[in-house]
């Protein structure tokens, strides 16, 4: 150290056990891939003034039907407070509506409105084409294998949390 500042690398990647080096490399590659993929998708898909979380909520409701707020949060990996904020903004735009569950006024189901359904129907086809284009460097078999491996990794992590 010179003047209290480092003058070069202070950690040696090669000093870690091979299994840690492999895991760290996986983390870096996975993070960079996700970031690049998400940025490319966002720049190519016209979201009609929707944030990615708002798009995610509309997509989930369009494919799965009405859902409880807590289920949406779990599906989209968002905290309860974040889901509430996203739903508030989508509701103010007229794309979703909260509906109290019969028999339990504490539970809300989130429904698409006609406007929300029309919007997601319009923009999802473009999103799907963009995702297909971005993944086109992989064969169908490679996409299936990578999907399987990532699910295996994600599932194993969920069991250790």
Outline the structure in words.
With 161 residues, the chain is mostly helical. It folds into 2 domains: 13-44; 48-158, Winged helix-like DNA-binding domain superfamily/Winged helix DNA-binding domain (Arc Repressor Mutant, subunit A). It is 63% helix and 11% strand. The chain is built from 6 helices and 3 strands, in the order ααβααββαα. The protein has helices at 18-44, 52-64, 69-76, 80-92, 114-134, 140-158; strands spanning 67-68, 96-101, 104-112. A 3-stranded antiparallel β-sheet has the order 1-3-2. The longest helix is centred in the first third of the chain and has 27 residues, at 18-44. The two termini are 38 Å apart.
Report mean pLDDT, rounded to a whole number: 90
Main sheet specs = 3 strands, antiparallel
CATH topology of the largest domain: Arc Repressor Mutant, subunit A
Helix/sheet category: mainly alpha
Radius of gyration: 21 Å
The CATH homology group name of the largest domain: Winged helix-like DNA-binding domain superfamily/Winged helix DNA-binding domain
Helix count, DSSP H or I runs of 4 or more residues: 6
Side-by-side strand order of the widest sheet: 1-3-2
CATH C-level of the largest domain: Mainly Alpha
Helix content: 55-70%
CATH architecture of the largest domain: Orthogonal Bundle
Number of domains: 2
Distance between the termini: 38 Å
Summarize the structure.
This protein has 161 residues and is mainly alpha-helical. It contains six helices and three strands, in the order ααβααββαα.
SSE blueprint:
Blueprint: H1 18-44, H2 52-64, E1 67-68, H3 69-76, H4 80-92, E2 96-101, E3 104-112, H5 114-134, H6 140-158
Antiparallel strand pairs: 1-3, 2-3
Helix pairs in contact: 1-5, 2-5, 3-4
């Amino acid at each position: 150290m010179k003047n209290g500042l480092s003058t070069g690398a202070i950690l040696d990647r090669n000093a870690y056990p091979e299994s840690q080096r492999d895991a760290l490399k996986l983390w870096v590659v996975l993070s960079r891939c996700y970031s690049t993929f998400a940025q490319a998708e966002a720049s190519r898909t016209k979201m009609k003034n929707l944030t990615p979380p708002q798009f995610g909520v509309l997509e989930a409701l369009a494919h799965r039907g009405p859902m409880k707020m807590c289920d949406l949060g779990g599906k989209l990996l968002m905290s309860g407070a974040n889901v509430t904020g996203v739903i508030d903004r989508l509701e103010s735009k007229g794309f979703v509506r909260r509906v109290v569950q019969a028999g339990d006024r504490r539970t809300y189901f989130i429904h698409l409105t006609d406007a929300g359904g029309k919007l997601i129907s319009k923009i999802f086809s473009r999103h799907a084409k963009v995702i297909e284009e971005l993944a086109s460097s992989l064969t169908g078999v490679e996409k299936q294998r990578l999907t399987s491996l990532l699910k295996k990794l994600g599932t194993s992590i969920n069991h250790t949390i």
